[in-house]
Amino acid sequence: MQILTPILILAGLGLVFGIVLAVASKAFAVEVDERVPAVTDVLPGANCGGCGYSGCAALAEAIVKGEAKPNACTVGGNEVAEAIGKIMGISVEKTVRKRAQVMCSGTCDLTTSKYIYEGAHDCIAAAKLGGGDKACANGCVGLGTCADACPFEAITVENGVAAVDYHKCRGCGVCVATCPKHVIELIPYDSAHWIGCKSAEKGAVTRKVCEVGCIGCRLCEKNCEYGAVKVEGSLAVIDYEKCVDCGVCVEKCPRHIIWSAKSQGDGLTITCEVLKNK
Amino acid sequence: MSFTEVLLMMFGAILVENFIFSKFYGCCPFLGVSEKPGTALGMGMAVTFVMTISSAVTWAVYYLLLKPFGLEYLKTVAFILVIAALVQFIEMFLRKFVPALYSAMGIFLPLITTNCAVLGAALVNIQNGYDFIGSVCYGFAAAIGFTLAIVIFAGLRSRIDYDAAPRAFRGFPLTLIAAGLLAMAFAGFSGVNFS
């Protein structure tokens, strides 16, 4: 008899809680739009936050509510946008796949430093101390805050300048928002040319602090048949809508600051000859 | 318990007998959910919420159900049952009626279902023979102590992340060392005695 009371009480407790929970799950049921989990499943699930929402589930909710566009996910690209469009029953505009590009070539041996930095290992902290230790006011700080922020582990710091692995980059733009120097830009994924410099200083100043910085000599602008390269201030900028990747500017640039990559398989690869020239 | 007694008991529960540093309850969320101060605070809030309510409910279960039948020895298993069911119920309730609170701490609630700090508070209440008000206040204060510890620790960890520590120490080793140093700081309260 003695063993019966505890068994009954425990079993009774379990039964009561079971019934209460079963009733509660019916009574407190929240109606969920079934399109939300469907859209969440289609999204990449990296929760990178590149779309501006806290994660893929939050974006899915916003898309279903109509607050976000179905092509808001830059990581998923056209395939995901189309799949979402199918679920939502609407047509979707095409988007251009983008990739992040670090617009700086000032590696440790090509630039000078203003002072010896010994603070926290973080670009944002370093940039607050007189703009970082690199003599160039616009160059990559090289402490890898973008690499830490990248949800796809696509960025590594090599010789003082961050480099993006194009095979891994999904173009979410998290690094662009993180970089205190604004030296990373999103450019169309297939474009093979970019200016590896962000220096806004005059040519003479840039020449002093960096061996490869853009001096605004306009040679690229003069030689471009398509009008795709323009020097704004004292910095060359490529207009990717006009650029046809002919590569003339790469040869003409006296500072070897215009980079060229070639398409290889599923992504871009920097050619060895270009690396040798830098 | 008188008002002064409750107040002193709460002070003791927060600082002197801190759940994490003196009793070693709730060490897994302390190390697992302390990477960012924001999430640490969310976890702390969820623990505070659940621990206060579960202290009240387990007190009632013990004194109204187990004790009259002489089944005190069943308290551990009965409390686990009560807390697990309670957390599930709270989760459903919040989701329906307080969506703002649910989105703030919803993801932490399932983690608390089997949290030893919550069970620990319920058992300490019985061990120390607190009355109903005392139990609720103790549960609340112990959870505030937990929140204090986890938020301070998250602040420490976010600073450690930026240090150029030797490679072998990066990550978890340095986290454990920092936890040890923080526990030593809290040991400074151990001499405080009001009785």
Question: Summed up, what is this model?
Answer:
With 278 residues, chain A is of the alpha+beta class. Chain A has eleven helices and nine strands.
What secondary-structure arrangement, pairings included, does this model have?
The complex is a heterodimer of chains A (278) and B (195).
Chain A: H1 4-27, H2 35-42, H3 56-65, H4 77-88, E1 98-102, H5 123-128, H6 145-149, E2 155-158, E3 161-164, H7 174-178, E4 184-188, E5 193-195, H8 203-209, H9 219-223, E6 229-232, E7 235-238, H10 248-252, E8 258-264, E9 267-270, H11 272-277
Antiparallel strand pairs in A: 1-4, 2-3, 5-8, 6-7, 8-9
Helix pairs in contact in A: 2-3, 2-4
Chain B: H1 3-16, H2 27-32, H3 37-66, H4 75-97, H5 99-105, H6 109-112, H7 116-127, H8 132-160, H9 172-187
* Largest sheet: spatial strand order of chain A: 5-8-9
Q: How many domain modules of chain B?
A: 1
> What is the helix fraction of residues of chain A, given as a range?
25-40%
Q: Would you tell me the overall average pLDDT of chain B?
A: 87
- What's the alpha carbon Rg of chain B, rounded to whole Å? 18 Å
Work out the helix count of chain B.
9
Mean pLDDT of chain A: 83
Order of helices and strands of chain A: HHHHEHHEEHEEHHEEHEEH
Q: State the distance separating the first and last CA atoms of chain B.
A: 14 Å
Low-confidence stretches of chain A: 271-278
Number of strands of chain A: 9
Counted by DSSP, the helix tally of chain A is 11
Unreliably modeled segments of chain B: none
**What is the fold named in CATH at topology level of the largest domain in chain A?**
Alpha-Beta Plaits
Biggest protein-protein contact in the assembly: A-B, 19 and 21 residues
Oligomeric state: heterodimer
What Rg of chain A, in angstroms, do the CA atoms define?
Answer: 26 Å
> What's the CATH architecture of the largest domain in chain A?
2-Layer Sandwich
Explain the overall architecture:
Chain A is of the alpha+beta class. Chain A folds into two domains: 54 residues, 3-methyladenine DNA Glycosylase II, Chain A, domain 3 (Orthogonal Bundle), CATH 1.10.15; 180 residues, 2-Layer Sandwich (Alpha-Beta Plaits). Chain A is built from eleven helices and nine strands. A three-stranded antiparallel β-sheet of chain A has the order 5-8-9. A two-stranded antiparallel sheet of chain A has the order 1-4. Chain A is elongated and about 95 Å long. The C terminus of chain A is likely disordered. Chain B has one domain. In chain B, 72% of the residues lie in helices and 0% in strands. Chain B has nine helices and no strands. In chain B, helix 8 packs across helix 9. Chain B is globular. The relative contact order of chain B is 0.20. The mean pLDDT of chain B is 87. Classes of the chains: A alpha+beta (278), B mainly alpha (195).
